[in-house]
Amino acid sequence: MQIDQIKELIQLLDQSSVHEMELETSDFKLSLKKETQSVMSAPVMQAQAVTPSAPAPQVEEKIEEATQEKASYRTITSPMVGTFYSRPAPDKEAFVNVGDRVESGQIVCILEAMKLFNDVEAEISGEIVEILVADGDLVEFGQPLFSVK
C-alpha cells in the first residue's frame, strides 16, 4: 500500500462518522482509530501499521506527519443544508481552486436550498489546500467544504 493511499484513507476516515477502521491484506495490516479530545478540538488519529516488507515505525511517522499537518489546517464549513456548487454557472470558472488565496468575506461557493442559491463566504483568510466536496454533493450544516492553510 502506497503512502498516498494511506493519506487518502485518513482523509476519508476524518470526514466520515466512522471512528475506527481496519484494513488487512496478506502482507499488510492497517488500523486507524479516530478519537476526539474535546468538543472544541480537532480529532486525533491513531494509527498502527504492520507489514513484513517495510518497518512499521516509518509508516507510522509518515501518517503522524500527515495527520499533524492536516490538523494545522482550518476549514470553511457549510452554513446550511443544501447542494454544493463550486461555480456560479456550469459554463463559468470555479469561485476558488486548490492553491488559491482567499480572504475573509470572499465568495467560495454557492449552496442551493429550496431553489434558492446562497453565496457562501470564507470566514477565514488563507490558501485553499483541499476542496472536500464535489459539485452537486448534498452537504449538511457544519460540514467542512474547504481546507485552508
Explain this structure.
The chain contains 2 helices and 11 strands. It is α+β, with helices and mostly antiparallel strands. A 4-stranded antiparallel β-sheet has the order 4-11-9-6, with no helix packed on it. A 4-stranded antiparallel β-sheet has the order 8-7-5-10, with no helix packed on it. Strand 1 (20-24) and strand 2 form a beta hairpin. Residues 37-41 have low confidence and may be disordered.
Entry summary:
The protein is an alpha+beta fold. It is built from two helices and eleven strands.
List the helices and strands and how they pair.
Layout: H1 3-15, E1 20-24, E2 29-36, E3 43-50, H2 56-71, E4 74-77, E5 82-85, E6 101-102, E7 107-113, E8 116-121, E9 126-131, E10 138-139, E11 144-148
Antiparallel strand pairs: 1-2, 2-3, 4-11, 5-7, 5-10, 6-9, 7-8, 9-11
Helix pairs in contact: 1-2
Average pLDDT score = 79
- Helix-strand makeup class: alpha+beta
Order of helices and strands: HEEEHEEEEEEEE
User: What is the first-to-last residue Cα distance?
Assistant: 28 Å
* Coarse morphology: elongated
Strand order of the largest sheet: 4-11-9-6
Number of strands: 11
Largest sheet: 4 strands, antiparallel
Q: Which ranges are low-confidence, i.e. pLDDT below 50, for 5 or more consecutive residues?
A: 37-41
- Radius of gyration (CA) equals 18 Å
Helix content: 10-25%
Oligomerization category of the chains in this entry? single chain
